[in-house]
């Protein structure tokens, strides 16, 4: 459980120096489809690198989805991979998404798909999904949409 405390650290990584708005690469409607409910609130960081989506029927104090976007050249992907492996959340490398990608999952509490495509780093964290979609299935659907908008 103490490893769950690492989760907030991954979303404070250096995403800066990117012109893409995290709240624009996946639509609210796409998120609502994969979580099976309405989004009640969206919080976007001032620099627009991170967008947090909260569901009406979601778990208290837990985001349904977090979308992060940044510059792939600043080492964020490699740092996230290192943290994921040290916390034993790393599940596997993922093919078919950008130049490189990996999946991490924390004890069924959340899952995050990390992707590098060209000069962009994107992570999509899913903490709620509509049955029978797993967190991984939901993240892949959202990442497909995000990569089309880069």
Descriptive notes:
The chain is 25% helix and 30% strand. With 150 residues, the protein is of the alpha+beta class. It has a 7-stranded antiparallel β-sheet with strand order 1-2-3-7-6-5-4, sandwiched between helices. Helix 2 runs antiparallel to helix 4 (135-148).
Quick structural gist:
The chain is α+β, with helices and mostly antiparallel strands and 150 residues long.
> CATH first level: which class?
Alpha Beta
- Binned, the helix content reads 10-25%
Q: So what's the overall shape?
A: globular
Distance between the termini: 35 Å
Number of E-state strands: 7
Total number of helices: 4
The name of the CATH superfamily reads: Mog1/PsbP, alpha/beta/alpha sandwich
Mean pLDDT: 86
Strand order of the largest sheet: 1-2-3-7-6-5-4
Q: Structurally, how many domains make up the residues? A: 1
CATH topology term: Protein Transport Mog1p, Chain A
* β-strand amount: 25-35%
Broad structural category = alpha+beta
Helix/strand order, N-terminal first: HHEEEHEEEEH
Characterize the largest beta sheet: strand count, sense, and whether it forms a barrel: 7 strands, antiparallel
- What is the CATH-assigned architecture? 3-Layer(aba) Sandwich
What is Rg?
Answer: 14 Å
What ranges have pLDDT less than 50 throughout 5 or more consecutive residues?
A: 1-17
């Amino acid at each position: 459980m103490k490893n769950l405390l690492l989760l907030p650290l991954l979303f404070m990584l250096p995403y800066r120096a990117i012109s893409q708005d995290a709240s624009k690469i996946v639509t609210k409607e796409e998120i609502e489809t994969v979580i099976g409910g309405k989004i009640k609130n969206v919080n976007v960081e001032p620099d627009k690198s991170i967008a947090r989506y909260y569901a009406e029927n979601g778990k208290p104090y837990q985001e349904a989805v977090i979308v992060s976007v940044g510059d792939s050249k600043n080492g964020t992907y490699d740092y996230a991979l290192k943290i994921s492996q040290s916390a034993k959340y790393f599940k596997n490398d993922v093919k078919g998404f950008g130049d490189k990608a990996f999946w991490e999952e924390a004890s069924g509490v959340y899952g995050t798909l990390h992707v590098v495509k060209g000069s962009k780093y994107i992570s999509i964290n899913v903490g709620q999904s509509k049955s029978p979609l797993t967190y991984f299935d939901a993240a892949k659907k959202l990442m497909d949409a995000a990569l089309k908008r880069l």
